[in-house]
Design brief:
heterodimer, A: 468 residues, 16 helices, B: 476 residues
């Protein structure tokens, strides 16, 4: 009986012109979106490779120089694009792509793509994630809004009841008929994505289990929508009303809730402005050691301490250049200040994330969006991760340069120049994004919310359709 | 017949509680979104005031220091921050270049969450390094803001669709169409009257709830009466456009759900698809040069300039004798070489830097040409312009700041190359920034949208004449 219902519903869907047209449109859109994203991915990664090599060459060939001048001269860390961004672009457009690494200062990632685009960019992009998150749920509504109401409207409900079919079997047939085409569509998309990614020259950090996990998340998201749409269809009398109510759910879940959440999160846990942040950092920096200022109170204290430790009575007698040593200590103090202030930002964001999660109660879109971005390495956490890695590299670089300065020159010798070949010995910056396992454990709450949605929607659907 | 229709329609809308429901929904939506906008604008104002206050405080400290130095006293500040050095003033005492919000800024967030509203340009550093983006979580930028513009552009059409998708089809489905057909009125006139009345009531509700929300939130709508009228005009023609579409779809008389599907399809097309496709095409046709490659270019130029900095300085002083006209000491330090090199780097980079603005301009023009495909884009753009938060407004601010950064730099050049010290007497002459808002050419959006809507109504009349020969009473 389940199979019969499934067959009948599928046949009906196939015969319906509306369904055929909308599936073709969705497929077409998906094709275009995947094609555009793949091109963009290749383009950006080519630029990334070129920039990385060129920047390293500039660093290596700076010639004889004082190591601290080189520290001020600085270098850049560039953020690559990850393979799964082909499926979900996430916040990539809004996050900066390059970080300037210099002495005394932690810089933020600069040059986000959105800042270089017109206001139209804020409407959204034609990317696979847009189709997956917005359009396919809409397709589900279109396919399923009249699943039960049509039986009422055509008068077939009584006939059906006289068949002696139990409600849950009937429901399961209908559910499967709605699930099957959506499942095929999604599977097709992920299969194409998998083939495309498999054929890319630089495999990067792509692994098929991430893609599979993403697929599972989206299928879960669609099951929730299928349950909701069928639930509404079973509970309303007219197809028109069922459609309008389902659409309301879609609007609230996909459009209104995320925007409202972002407003509430911002008012409750605001970020400082860029200038405020810089001013706060400056204030804290002033309270500690400044590597460039040998006359400050902190510098004198450090002097005494070092002299005592080495049992000598003048800085000239130290086995290293005290200027370089002080520079390094100052650098460590500054790094701590930045650590504190960036932690404050992270803290604000963690609290914002809580707001997003509490609003996930009215929107299955939110946990799906966050999970999908996280798996694709295009979420905010990955961006933080990259920025932290760049900062760690910056601190290590400063130590590398200051140590060379301290060890190879004597106190007061600012004229010291490191060898032209010295720069090559600085290790390169390499960043590996977190593995799937750690991403999932970081997102357990989102997974939990999605699971809760699944369970609740299934429960409600079974419970209410007992009495259709 | 019109008066019958009017009475009947009002009764039906009141009894089905449509009017009551709509007023509550509209009040809630407008209220929440306007409140969000208001909070944003208040924060923006507060931030700018705080920045100005900070500069004032710093200035007081600077003047005190200058006073002490001029009187020959010992000061405890680091050597290179003492404001007798013109470069110290230029670097450690920058002015605030702020973009004050326009009176209607609360209406549309536009690009306001992406860009910063004040920067403090210094004498050193590059113009390209001036960071105009605001420190925001990118998640927030991705989701966007629940502002009045969102309610008007995205949600209002959906309310209209829910309000009008089954005007004719429900009569058909409930069987009352046969009764109607016996009345002495053309079916098109009847649908038009019915939709006209719904448009009338919805307009009243929208305008009413907007005024209520504005008054409650203390956003006086009558202070900027012209702007407010413009806003109402824009909302009304946008609504009219969607009613015109509803009219067309209603005349086509499918079942209620077919109508709803068709209208939603059109909504998805105009509000979601057309803007994103246009944006994508704009980016493909006029691609932005890569910023990462720009960094490379800038770095190599700088590396080149540092190697030749003495030569650059000599050439520079030969080209600009006016800077060092009173210099007797002939002292040349780090900053003399640095500023000269910066100038060269800036000149050589300017074609590259300008190419970004040029490409953006081209994208903008391209969109300007094709935006008429989607009334949602036109409306959003007009709202952003009214609020002073459009891409153009921020571009205007950016250009003004870059100009000001130039003025600020130039101001200290004679001090630097003449090796003169900065004194208290020079303080009042420091340049300050005054933001001049961009004046948008009066929007053609309202008349054009109005004409398009009229055209759609006309189309409905003409087309349905041909189709409806068979009679609307026949079942499909």
């Amino acid at each position: 009986m389940i199979l019969k219902t499934f067959q009948k519903e599928t046949k009906e869907l196939l015969r319906d012109g509306r369904v055929r047209i909308s599936v073709i449109i969705v497929l077409l859109l998906l094709g275009v979106a995947v094609w555009i994203s793949a091109k963009q991915y290749q383009n950006i990664n080519e630029q990334y490779e070129a920039a990385k090599i060129a920047e390293r060459a500039i660093w290596d060939n700076q010639g004889e120089k004082n190591p601290h001048s080189a520290a001020h001269y600085g270098t850049y860390a560039f953020k690559p694009k990850y393979p799964l961004s082909l499926v979900d672009q996430g916040v990539d457009k809004f996050a900066g792509t390059s970080i300037f690494l210099e002495a005394h200062k932690r810089n933020e990632a600069q040059f986000s793509a959105a800042a270089d685009q017109t206001g139209l960019a804020r409407f959204g992009d034609l990317t696979p994630d847009f189709i997956l998150l917005f359009i396919i749920p809409l397709l589900i509504i279109l396919l399923g809004y009249n699943s039960f109401t049509k039986e009422r409207e055509m008068g077939t409900l009584t006939l059906l009841k006289s068949q002696g079919i139990s409600n849950w079997k009937w429901l399961l047939g209908k559910w499967l008929a709605l699930f099957f085409p959506i499942f095929c569509l999604t599977a097709l998309l992920f299969l194409i994505a998998g083939i495309l990614l498999g054929n890319l020259n630089d495999f990067g950090v792509f692994n098929s289990s991430s893609l599979l996990m993403m697929f599972v998340v989206y299928v879960g998201y669609y099951i929730i929508f299928i349950n909701i749409v069928l639930l509404i269809s079973a509970r309303t009398k007219k197809s028109g009303i069922s459609l309008v109510v389902s659409l309301c759910v879609w609007i609230i879940a996909c459009l209104a809730a995320p925007k409202a959440a972002s407003n509430i999160a911002e008012t409750k846990h605001p970020y400082p402005t860029r200038q405020e942040f810089a001013a706060n950092v400056l204030k804290d920096k002033k309270e500690g050691l400044d590597g460039h200022n040998p006359w400050s109170k902190e510098a004198k204290l450090l002097e005494e301490e070092v002299l005592k430790k080495y049992g000598v009575d003048s800085l000239h007698q130290l086995p290293f250049n005290f200027d370089g040593y002080r520079m390094q200590k100052g650098e460590e103090h500054e790094a701590e200040v930045y650590f504190k202030h960036y932690n404050y930002l992270k803290n604000q964001y963690t609290q914002q994330a809580d707001v997003y999660q509490s609003l996930a109660a009215i929107s299955p879109y939110l946990p799906t969006r966050f999970l999908s971005m996280a798996i694709a390495h295009t979420d905010y956490a990955t961006h933080w991760d990259f920025a932290d890695a760049a900062e760690e590299y910056r601190i290590a670089t400063q130590k590398f340069l200051n140590d060379n300065f301290a060890e190879n020159s004597e106190y007061g010798n600012w004229g010291y120049r490191a060898d032209a070949s010295f720069w090559k010995s600085l290790p390169t910056f390499d960043y590996d994004p977190p593995e799937l396992g750690s991403i999932l454990s970081r997102n357990t709450s989102n997974l939990g919310i999605l699971g809760l949605w699944l369970a609740t929607s299934f429960g409600l659907l079974l419970f209410t359709t007992k009495t259709v | 017949m019109l008066s019958y229709n009017f009475k009947y329609e009002l009764k039906i809308l009141l009894r089905s509680r449509w009017i009551q429901l709509l007023s509550i929904v509209l009040l809630l939506l407008f209220g929440f979104s306007a409140l969000n906008g208001k909070q944003k604008v208040e924060k923006r104002k507060k931030d700018i005031t705080a920045a100005h206050d900070e500069v004032k405080e710093n200035d007081a400290m600077m003047l005190k220091l200058l006073d002490s130095v001029e009187r020959g006293m010992e000061v405890s500040a680091s050597r290179w921050t003492i404001p007798t050095s013109p470069m110290a003033v230029g670097n450690y005492h920058p002015r605030v270049a702020a973009m004050e919000p326009q009176p209607m800024a609360f209406m549309a967030t536009g690009q306001a969450d992406l860009f910063t509203h004040y920067v403090k340009p210094k004498v050193t550093g590059d113009d390209v390094a001036l960071n105009f983006t605001e420190m925001t979580s990118p998640v927030q930028l991705l989701f966007g803001s629940f502002d009045l513009a969102f309610v008007i552009v995205y949600l209002l059409p959906l309310l209209i669709i829910a309000f009008s998708y089954n005007v004719l089809s429900s009569e058909k489905e409930s069987g009352s169409l046969r009764l109607l057909a016996a009345q002495p009125i053309g079916i098109r006139t009847w649908v038009l009257q019915k939709l006209g009345l719904r448009f009338f009531w919805l307009s009243i509700l929208v305008v009413g709830s907007l005024i209520v929300v504005f008054l409650v939130l203390d956003l006086n709508p009558f202070a900027q009466f012209n702007l407010f009228l413009g806003l109402l005009g824009l909302i009304l023609v946008y609504m009219l456009f969607w009613f015109a579409l509803a009219f067309l779809v209603n005349l086509w008389t499918g079942s209620s759900s077919k109508n709803a599907v068709a209208l939603i399809g059109v909504w998805v097309l105009f509000v979601l698809l057309v803007p994103s496709v246009l944006n994508q095409l704009g980016n493909t046709l006029y691609p932005m040069p890569s910023r990462t490659l720009m960094i490379n270019e800038m770095r190599s130029l700088k590396a080149e300039a540092t190697k030749k900095q003495d030569e650059i300085l000599d050439n520079f002083l030969r080209d600009h004798p006016e800077y060092a006209i009173n210099d007797t000491t002939q002292f040349r330090g780090f900053y003399h070489r640095y500023m000269a090199s910066q100038k060269i780097i800036k000149e050589e980079l300017s074609p590259l830097v300008n190419s970004y603005e040029e490409q953006l301009q081209k994208q903008q023009e391209w969109i300007g040409l094709f935006k008429w495909i989607s009334p949602a884009i036109i409306t959003q753009e007009s709202l952003n312009q009214m609020a002073g938060t459009s891409t153009g407004d921020y571009e205007n601010f950016r250009n003004q700041v870059v100009d000001f950064a130039g003025t600020w730099r130039e101001h200290f050049m004679p001090f630097l190359y003449n090796n003169t010290v900065f004194s208290q007497a020079d303080y009042p002459n420091l340049p300050s920034f005054q933001f001049k808002p961009k004046t948008h050419s009066s929007s053609q959006a309202i008349p054009i949208l109005f004409l398009v809507s009229l055209g759609l109504f006309g189309l409905g009349f003409v087309v349905s004449k041909g189709i409806k020969k068979g009679g609307i009473l026949e079942t499909n």
